[in-house]
Amino acid sequence: MMVALGVCTSANPHEGGLGYMAGMFHLFTHAMFKALLFLGAGCIIHAVHSNEMSTMGGLRKYMPITHITFLIACLAIAGIPPFSGFFSKDEILTACFQFSPVMGWIMTIIAGMTAFYMFRLYYGIFWGTENKEFHAEHVPHESPLAMTFPLMCLAAITIVCGWLLPFGHFVSANGEAYDIHLDTQVAATSIIVAIIAIAIATWMYARDRQPVADMLATRFSTLHRAAYKRFYMDEIWLFITKRIIFRCVPLRLPGLTATCRSVHELHGLGCQRNRRKRTAHAKRKDPELHHVVPGWNYSINCHVISIMNILSLFVIIPLLMLLGLWIARNVNQIRGVMVTGSSLLLILAAYLAVSYIGLRNEGATAEMLFTDSVVWYAPLHICYSVGVDGISVVMLLLSSIIVFTGTFAILETQAPDKKNIFCGSPC
What we know:
Strand content: under 5%
Order of helices and strands: HHHHHHHHHHHHHHHEEH
Oligomer: single chain
């Protein structure tokens, strides 16, 4: 995406802005299939109780739904048609070739590397060598519907949103509609490179025995060890946080001097401070404060108009969800609030997207649609204003899909133990 933004040119606002539109398009599609990959990884870890690939292998016969949805995500990120990643990646590569043929070929090779390592991951999890001894002790199983339903939703979106969604009509560099089209030469090149990369990964990792991979791991042992350790980024991060930040920068709060606090201690402190604030406010309470302050706009009609704007519902619904979570008394009520709220946001976002496209097709040329503004405090020019452009509509739709699927994905999760989250052990 960043490369696509970097190859934007100003020579032609329409053609030069291809990189901008392509980057935003890939941001949208990438969020779908990358969320599918992450949720699929969660189902796999839930099934084998481990995140080590040595405990996996051969999981396709135990987890058919996760297997198929994970494969769809891998095909999408590899840029294989008709999955969404192909269309957005093709636009990025077209923009790169338009900017510089060298840049285009570099990004094409990088796209091929992406296809290779994603299918290495796919074969290592669902094919490859099965750890039968580990699976005999703990038989893998498909995740419950609450976890597989988001996978199926995201997989369906990944299949259709690339060629079905007119993204160029939402987001463009100059505000004019951009009809997405495929560059046949660029598309054919990227597909061939991706297929070659997938074929190499299949040859190396799809079988129970992997002599080529083992030979490379032995010959380049140092590089293999560094790659296995994720080039020691985790160790570096833990060293910086635990040995430097947490030791040299103690947590200093009023009334607390230790560097490690329990959640209950911090919560108790917050409650005490809030009680003191409420007490002090009550002592200072003056009936004069309840009088109307000059400058406030108390027009009921204006407020009703603003609240009834469809965009205001994207503010009101999350606030109502927070209120529902606050008054909920058990886990089932919490789940009900989240499912209801996320479903309403998804329906609302889909309706907004359809309405926005309809208005643009009818000839609406304004930069922002569904606009509304209400003055709240005139002396300081504080107003409540709403409106959306193309990228706003896309981001609202994207976030609502992620919230909806994420809500269902966590329905089966259990509340963590109330331990000390600051130091990891009792203080």
